[in-house]
Design brief:
Blueprint lengths: L4 H12 L5 H6 L3 H14 L5 E2 L11 H10 L13 H15 L9 E4 L2 H12 L8 E6 L4 H8 L3 E6 L15 H5 L1 E7 L11 H13 L3 E5 L25 E6 L12 E5 L1 H14 L5 H11 L3 H23 L4 E2 L6 E5 L5 H10 L2 E2 L1 E2 L10 E5 L4 H15 L1
Parallel strand pairs: 1-11, 3-4, 3-5, 5-6, 6-7
Antiparallel strand pairs: 2-8, 7-8, 9-10, 10-13, 12-13
Bound molecules: pyridoxal-5'-phosphate.
Length: 401
């Protein structure tokens, strides 16, 4: 029995309805999400996998942070504000002063976020005019995919600039075509870098800020891995501003430094004029940090001891992985700080190696998942404990020897 005639007409009309924003379709599936699904399927089938693919470390969240969250869950739940409470903004400003020697006004220069990913994703909505002449958002490739995805969906033009090993995987704004800079609205830098673990010094940040300012480009620094430095403390972009934050924004995150990936807590800090625009945008995005998460964030931003402990733990894991792979003849680039080790694949086939390792019980991310320039490398996230990292290296070496 067929549908009544009116039903058929309605169905035909529905089929003509737009089904997907073309910008979303153009972005394609998130490569890391696909890998995650594959790992879940294998795990469900009983596979014994050591997962070094997703940057979600196993170390527990500090007790004081968990207690702060629990204590802040009250009997009545209210909407949080985009602006965030005084306490969390003061705690973030306190961290910037202690760690980076930078004075920021918690009232006008600090905005809590629900992790840094959503803040990065939403940023182009605040500054890109899809009908204007400055739609370009520049970032390095290989790199974190969210810079491109957020730009595309905001009607901007994502411009991926190839990063090279010989340049230390650094984006050099000064080397870009002036015509590109003239149509660029925002540029992203990220150090310690995902996926390479490359680092920079404050001189580099000063140079980039000078170029950005000369071309009226907003310079955004993704500082998600900032606290997992090794050797010298990683500088914030705001250290390069010498007190004048015009055109500069730093994106902070509690995810890795405090073991809070599931809490979704971060911050935007910098130029008060830009922060004011972001605050207005974020009154509509529904991504205000919940009050109880803010309470946990106050505990996390106010304590440096647990961060030093975590930093030391990642250092031990990084050293164990590099020593193990090095002894077996593998080489790497970057891998100096942050959460990742970036290993060179001699025959250049990162996909084939990642598959081979998956069969051997080790999950790594093929470099090409981070965009052009990532082919020929694989990324290892220092996620398991040091014994797990050593076992992963043992399996790697056994599978490839
Ligand atoms: C470079 C980079 N930036 C930002 C993020 C987002 O982190 P979160 O949203 O947990 O703060 C990640 C997550 O892995 C990342 O790798």
């Amino acid at each position: 029995m067929g549908l009544p005639r009116a039903g058929c007409r309605r169905l035909r009309r529905l089929r003509r309805m737009p089904t997907e924003n073309p910008a979303l379709a153009a972005a394609g599936p998130n490569p890391l999400a696909r890998l995650r699904e594959e790992v879940a399927v294998r795990r469900a089938a009983g596979a014994d996998l050591i997962d070094l693919s997703i940057g979600d470390p196993d170390e527990p969240t500090p007790d004081a942070v968990r207690a702060a969250l629990r204590d802040a869950v009250g009997p009545v739940s209210s909407y949080p504000t985009a602006r965030g409470g005084d306490a969390v903004r003061a705690a973030i400003a306190g961290f910037m002063a202690r760690r980076h020697g930078v004075a920021v006004d918690p009232a006008t220069q600090v905005l809590p976020t629900s992790g840094s990913k959503e803040a990065i994703f939403h940023l182009p909505l605040a500054f890109v005019d899809p009908a204007g002449s400055r739609r370009a958002v520049v970032f390095g490739t290989p790199g974190y995919p969210t810079y491109a995805r957020g730009t595309r969906l905001a009607g901007g033009e994502p411009v991926a600039v190839r990063l090279r090993e010989e340049d230390g995987w650094r984006l050099d704004l000064g080397a870009l075509d002036p015509d590109l800079l003239a149509r660029t609205c925002v540029a992203w830098i990220n150090h310690p870098h995902n996926p390479t673990g490359a680092t920079v010094d404050v001189g580099y940040l000063r140079d980039q800020l000078a170029v950005a300012r000369a071309h009226d480009v907003i310079l955004c620094s993704d500082e998600c891995y900032q606290e997992l430095w090794a050797g010298a403390p990683a500088p914030s972009l705001l250290e390069a501003t010498d007190g004048d934050t015009t055109g500069a924004l730093a994106f902070l995150s509690l995810s890795k430094r405090s073991g809070m990936t599931g809490y979704r807590s971060g911050a935007i800090v910098g130029d008060p004029a830009l922060v004011a625009v972001l605050r207005r945008l974020r009154e509509d995005t529904g991504t205000a940090s919940p009050d109880f998460v803010q309470a946990a964030a106050v505990a996390a931003w106010s304590d440096d001891t647990h961060v030093a402990d975590r930093r030391a733990a990642f250092d031990v894991k990084r050293t164990a992985v590099l020593e193990g792979l090095g002894a077996a003849g593998w080489s790497w680039s970057g891998s100096a700080a942050g959460l990742y080790v970036w290993v060179r694949i001699p025959d250049g086939d990162d996909l084939a190696l990642a598959r081979r390792l998956l069969d051997a019980g080790v999950v790594v991310t093929p470099g090409r998942a981070f965009g052009p320039g990532g082919e020929g490398w694989v990324r290892l996230a220092l996620v398991p404990d040091v014994a797990g990292c050593r076992e992963a290296v043992r399996r790697w070496v056994a599978a490839t020897g």
